[in-house]
């Protein structure tokens, strides 16, 4: 008789396609270890063209994933401050973009959306910036959980109010205009609920880029209804097949993760292992270029003499050694007197070690928020 383990709490699969674009600007990763009670997805949809949009999405994904993976080492500590941690992580990724555009002016204007669903048992936390949707399929109905930070909701509202024709709204040039995105500047809008959303067994969470929305919500709902009892890998394959079947010449990059919730049980406090918290404050250290005087190899001093091994003793009659000319010894330099130095602030140390004016002052006073509206 073969012993079988219980069904995993989450059944997760991801899909990605370049669509009809010349390059891939989406970046996505999912982390749901087998046997774990928690996991998360990081999705970033870049904007700004080749060598900019794809770079922005990769920067955001790398920074967010590494920070969130660190905090998920202690899930209980993460949940105690989940909204604060998620917002801080988004700010950190945004600051990394700012530093990159400062050092690479040719990438000015690049940016990326961000959506991060973080699941702990039956609780769903998320942070969302931009127009990448986070869907929930429950009871045969599809709904969007996160806010849409584009002009589409305002345009749809005008249609409902009778101020705009539906056909005009569907093809409106400002429909994909973003009102909030990560660009290294102030983030106008952040969707990050203070309380988690409670999931149920049988729920399907779909985290996607807006390329998936070339399918209508009704079409996505139909696929999820038909394959709701199948594995997540099959659902992902069917969604990709339907998108490819559209054969849309303007098809945007596609990326998504399907999360099937098989088990929505909650472990009691007594069942949870107790122990000291492993969550600590991560040090923040900017990577800088070493000054020339530190990067040069040490030179051998002029007075350094390689020792010569002593000659072997000679057996026989003693002879007077030939006189050897002697050089005047080079005086050794005296050591510099030790002087106590006052401790410096971290920002001051970075600036002093980089006298180049291109290195920016990192003090908070220099940060100047500006509001931008970006057309994707």
Portion in helices = 25-40%
Strand content: 15-25%
Instruction: Name the CATH superfamily assignment of the domain at 10-144 and 182-261.
Output: PPM-type phosphatase domain
Average pLDDT for all residues: 80
Low-confidence stretches: 1-5, 275-280, 285-291, 300-306, 311-319, 338-372
Give a brief outline of the structure:
26% of the residues lie in helices and 18% in strands.
Q: What does it look like?
A:
- The chain is built from 9 helices and 13 strands.
- It is of the alpha+beta class and 376 residues long.
- The strands form 3 sheets. Strands 2, 3, 4, 5, 6 and 10 form a 6-stranded antiparallel beta sheet that branches.
- Strand 2 and strand 3 form a beta hairpin.
- Helix 1 packs antiparallel against helix 3.
- It is globular and about 50 Å long.
- It starts with 9 loop residues before the first strand and ends with a strand.
- The N terminus is likely disordered.
Keywords for this structure?
single chain; 376 residues; alpha+beta; Phosphatase 2c, domain 1; six-stranded antiparallel sheet; five-stranded antiparallel sheet; 9 helices; 26% helix; 18% strand; globular; disordered N terminus
